[in-house]
Amino acid sequence: MSQPVRAVPSPEALPSKAVTADLTTLLGQLSRLGLDFAAESLPALLTRAVKEDLGPPTLLEHLLRGELERREERRVRTSLRLSGLPSGQTLANFDFAFQPAVERSKLEALATGVWLREKQGLLILGPPGVGKTHLAVALGVKAVECGFSVVVYCLNKMLHAMRKDAEVPPTRLRGKKYMKAALVIIDEVGFEMFTRQEANLFFRLVSYRYQRGSLCITSNKAIQDWPEMLAGDEVITAAILDRLLHSCHVLNIRGRSYRLRDLEDSLKGRS
């Protein structure tokens, strides 16, 4: 037979020394358990509980909800810092009106993280300045908020890291960020041609992560131009695209450059 829930006596119902002693002990126990927010907010919550006649379950729910929210905020901040994602680029401040070719509904669907749970890929293609990096970063932020690990590289840094590990067997690369993160974002693919070694290393990365984790790649090169970009090697390009395009979302952005628009606005302002 379940025992009835005992009401928490109000501070007025107990001797002041007993209340102080009990509260001090409780705050110390919460701190030792790592429940810092709960320890910080408990006195105010107890006062509120007395004023609003909150029962013990409600008081506890408020206490734990605040602790969980604080921990989630701390997790997101830490994950964003480790990811290398720049700040300030979100879906909320992306100018969809300026780029009508970008479907807001598709971006909102990607922001749920379902594609990451399915370990699918994402290619964001288009000329320079149309917002490819902004969208990749914004989706990376959403991925962190959904609980996924994320790391972002510009292509040069990605290739530098892979060249350093060129002689390391793939089975020993599992601990590398670019292998183990749930989402790896590679930005600025296409501005420089790959050497044959770099094309092979890129294939190794794509092959290892295939159906193990998600890749998001931004590129100013259309798919048909990738063989030329990848050292002119059609065989390695076909192998890479075969894995990338399987279960992959593709965003083709065809529109004006934000940077050129800002330059035009600046010049108009001076005239």
CATH topology of the largest domain: Rossmann fold
* Low confidence ranges: 5-9, 13-19
CATH superfamily of the largest domain: P-loop containing nucleotide triphosphate hydrolases
Q: What percent strand?
A: 5-15%
Which CATH class of the largest domain applies here?
A: Alpha Beta
Helices, by number, come to: 12
Give an account of the 3D structure.
- With 271 residues, this protein is α/β, with parallel strands linked by helices.
- It folds into two domains: 11-74, no CATH class; 104-264, Rossmann fold (3-Layer(aba) Sandwich), CATH 3.40.50.300.
- Helices cover 54% and strands 10% of the residues.
- The protein contains twelve helices and five strands.
- It has helices at residues 16-32, 36-52, 56-83, 104-111, 114-117, 132-145, 155-164, 177-180, 196-209, 226-229, 234-245, 258-270, and strands at residues 121-125, 150-154, 183-189, 214-219, 248-252.
- Strands 2-3-4-1-5 form a five-stranded parallel β-sheet.
- α9 (196-209) links the parallel β3 (183-189) and β4 (214-219).
- α1 (16-32) runs antiparallel to α2, α2 packs antiparallel against α3 and α9 (196-209) packs parallel to α11.
- It is elongated.
- The termini are far apart.
Secondary structure layout plus pairing:
Blueprint: H1 16-32, H2 36-52, H3 56-83, H4 104-111, H5 114-117, E1 121-125, H6 132-145, E2 150-154, H7 155-164, H8 177-180, E3 183-189, H9 196-209, E4 214-219, H10 226-229, H11 234-245, E5 248-252, H12 258-270
Parallel strand pairs: 1-4, 1-5, 2-3, 3-4
Helix pairs in contact: 1-2, 2-3, 9-11
